[in-house]
Amino acid sequence: MLELVAALFSSVLDAAPPLVFAAVGATLSERAGVVNVGVEGMMRAGAFVAAVAALAMPTPLGVLVGMAAGAAVAFVHAWLCIRWRSDQVVSGMALNLVMLAAGTFLLEAVFDSPNATPSIAQLPKWLGHSPLTWLAFVVPVVAHVAVTRTAWGLRLRAVGEKPQAVAVMGVRVSRLRFSAVLLSGALAGLGGAALSTATLDRFEHHMPSGLGFMAVAAMVFGRWTPLGAAGAATFFAFGKALSIGLASSAPALLTVVPQGALLALPYALTLVVLAVSGKKSAAPAALGQPYDPELR
Amino acid sequence: MREALRRALPSVLAIVASLAACFVAVGLTRGFGTAVDAFAAMLWGAFGDWPRFFDDGGSGAVLRPLGEAGTKAALLTFTGLSVAVAFRVGLFNIGAQGQLMVGAVVAAVVGAQVELPGVLHVAVCLGTAAAAGALYALGPALLKRHRGVHEVISTIMLNWVAVSLVENWLVVGPLRASASGDNSISGTAQVHPSAELPRLLGDTSRLNLGFVLALVAAAVTWWFLARLKRGYEWRAVGLNPEAARAAGIDVGRSVVHAMCLAGAFAGLAGAVLVLGTELKYPATLGAPYGFDGIAMALIGGGHPLGVLGSALFFGGLRAGGTRMQLFGVHKSFPELIQGLALLLVAARYVWDRLLARLAKKEAARA
Amino acid sequence: MIELAHISKRFGAVAALDDVSLRIEPGERLALIGENGAGKSSLMNVLYGLYHPDAGEVRFDGRPVKVRTPAEALARGVGMVHQHFTLVPTLTVAENVVLGAEPSRGGLLDLDAAVAQVQASCRRFGFSVDARARVDSLTVGSQQKVEIVKALHRGVKTLILDEPTAVLTPQEADELFSVTRALSESGLAVVLISHKLKEVLAFATRLAVMRRGRKVAEVAPKDTTAEALAALMVGEGNASDSPLPGPLPAGRGEVVLRAERLAADKLHDVSFSLHAGEVLGIAGVDGNGQRELAEVLTGLRAFTGTLELFGRRCAALSPGEARGLGVAHVPEDRLRRAVVADMTVEENVALGRHGAPPFAKGPLIDFAGRRARTAQLLDAHDVRPRDGTLRVGALSGGNQQKLVVARELDAQPKVLVVVQPTRGLDIAAVAAVRARIHDERARGCAVLLVSLDLDEVLALSDRVLVFFEGRVTAELDRAAFDERLIGRRMLGVADA
Q1: I want to staple A218 with a disulfide (CB 3.0 to 4.6 A). Which of A23, A194, B308, C244 is the partner?
Q2: ipTM of predicted complex
Q3: Going from the N-terminus, what domains does chain B have, and what CATH number goes with each?
């Protein structure tokens, strides 16, 4: 029994990083007032690019390149939403679909395999787990400090609630929001890279299989704070770990519960949690509204 | 009419730009001669091999590609309508894929396990599939209305639940077709012939009644949204729910009804897929028609006829895509064209703003 | 000394500013007056770096300077307090005041230093605000003080106040003026943007009048009168369109609406009756339940207590039911609640009655009927431009409001609930809307007028109810209107 719990705990530590990084990233963007449902696409970009880059360079470098890929996708989102005031949900979803198509296309065209890229060397483990796992403890804390204790964080919170207040004090709204969205893209890219270099050792054609949206759900559940989002992300990772763990460690369970139900578990859990946690009254007030300086 | 054309302009420009960009990309990597050949192959494969038709007069050269295009277009139309209808009331239905799967599996079951005379069987299969899709969309609608859960997240979660339950349990478990003889069959049992959607072009192509149904659905949706009071109400709800409420419109009910209709359309897409081409629920569904529906709806500007237009165009490109392989271009290239066009359309607001700015400059100068 | 020289600014086809020149001397109290849309706010926005002029330049002590952003304006000692507060409600006073120039220690925000700095500023300028309080817990008057401290904290030498008394009680306005007078006497230049002639004549040392983007006059208060200023603001030939109509003929009918112990959110316990053919005005500082009352009466908010419409008790009311009973609503925020900006004028005219003729035939929309009715209404209410196919969002604020009023009145209502009906409108539109209210009253309609502009309430109403903290603290008939008394009741002061 104890081994089961230890094994479960261990698999949560392995499954959490992608969700945690992406959730913290989403939080930064939305706290600044820019809806970011494109996290899924940014994770996919990060996962693919990191796995491919790691074929030609040391894996840690590959991870960094993956982060850059995520940030690049985020740049497009930021440009469309901030500079051109596009509908933020449409922009995010369009990027998701484009990354979906691009990932599939490149996988099949470049690697001739509809399933996965070749294996890469994973990051060397520290204390039994990938270094990214330990990083997943650090990043939320750093984000928390940045948001609550720095001038940048104060302005970030202000611009998400009332961009006019920030503008009249001489701070550039667009620059602030751009920085938040780019950071969220980099973190999402890191989350994707974690999937393909730590959780697994390759890019698989479905990645991140809805984890990006789960991260957004974690942000909502965590009430748009970095620590809350990280906590919620860990909870959802627990759901994922549980579904995999139960299948492998308690095969007898499979005679009663179909495997499909176990696979559906994390997603259903996310849904239930969101349904129960009620209306999202904790969202930043100016979330989703493009900033128009001439509108007073 | 002019207004409608003006609204379609950004989408048309986006598609043209996307085609151009992809053409250049192929040209640069494989040579422009190959690019021309590959794109030509795609075109003939999409809208009919007219050169061959003029050469040897066999109508199959034109009908087969058109039939294939039409088959794909039917599915894209249904899922596109699904997303577009939800857009009307201001919701983003990303769950078309899950609703499609649910509709497909129900159609497969009703088609295989129930015995009814021809027309009735088809009608019952379609009806139950639509109902299943509608029910699957009802959940997110209620969650949004009563608990404020964002429909993007809830519908996506349900997509994954559908994949897990349908393809990883039902289709390989209780609903699995029993193996006969040496063949091990994947997917569910074949549907009875009475449930199959009749072919429109005989043996020449897979084009089936689903195509006609899709055309009818687009026309009816357009008529509903443009001409009926209820359609007007839905539009008001989507554009300004507070004002709609103050005007006495039941916003919650409109949202639920629209989402159920959206789910029904996606369910019908699944039914057409099963009853028209696959004739059972296969091991995996293949093309993510549900997600493509989102692209169709966005490129089509949320308008039922725009959706139809996009679906016809991209359905054609998809059909033609297989022929590009002969020239070393991967067959999923059309998806890339579609993706790029989608991104450019999402930047339609860029077009809109640019056009608006130009208009303002004109007015100021006047 | 600041000089704005030959400033011009266009927004599309509209000239917001047309060759305007203005000087601001240190220590003076300059009032910039004109009706809505005259360009007063636009001119100051140019000085504050929010707008970039198409022509002309800004000079500080004779040297031309490009003010590109509010940060640059602040750096040059110019501060501005806007009409719509630019405070972040969820942050504290200190955080709001230091935003953009935050004290830090070792890379991290030093909130204690911020609080100390802000408290020092408050003391220096004679304000008493709790620097650690969250802004959304403060009253409107206090929030405005925070806005002023925000500017003064940066060491500004010129302070621009844009319509500061629009939402204050008479007493709070007095307090504001005495503080700013003291500040100007110690060297601060104050620019007051206002359309309230009485207060401007009492406060300013110099007046500049703007009309349609041009400066039309500069006078000293002792050399002019309110009537002369009004004429300058509005122009020759329009003096008859005075914003305040004459006294109303009496004519109160039977009770159409009775409320007893009505309660909902900020509304706590309100009882009154509304008669046909009267205008009942609701006076009060923003946030004391008036808004909620309007929402309750139009079916937009659930309530407890008794509500009787035309003798029938209503336990609950939906917007559709309210409309059906003959209640019309001209809400405060028309873009949010009254119109769908992306729909056409015709489609908006149908909104609320879209299910019945002439807008519908059975389940179908009656396009011809809708077009005809719209054309009729646009003509009758002088809505411009006369094009039913335009997007409502493209209309000016005044025309949008006229459209809403036209639509609501076309239903021949028995009760008309209007909230802030003339906010942000130009003089012609204000006169038009007030005339309509007048006409409805004469027709026998019962009008409930909620307005934060006390002058408007007193000018239009037969009877006034004063709200404070969700309760009625005074009820006065027209003959007994007393502005000072009402002001005290608005603040809950219950003297004799």
Answers
A1: A23
A2: 0.84
A3: 2-365 (1.10.3470)
